[in-house]
Amino acid sequence: YTFAVIDKEYNLLQVVRDIRNVLMPKAEGKGLTFIIELEEGLSYELYGDEIRVKQIITNLINNAIKYNMYS
Predict the structure, then answer these.
(1) Side-chain-side CA neighbours of residue 71 (13 Å)
(2) Which side of the chain, N or C, has fewer Cβ within a 10 Å radius?
(3) Contacts with 68 (C-beta within 8 Å, 6 or more apart), sequence order
(4) pLDDT 10s digits, 36-56
């Protein structure tokens, strides 16, 4: 199985907001608060494989929601 890396410019802030919009209902359904804190003044314009970055962050947050000690 091989996959192509698709490098392009993307905005990390928008990626994180998209993920939040998808996963917030799942977190709230478990009684969790979904908070995003990003450093002010940083550039969120990145160059790379947006799809892979989105998959990684989504998996990390999904695991945090699934395996938290509060639910």
Answers:
(1) 13
(2) N
(3) 30, 32
(4) 888 888 899 999 999 999 999
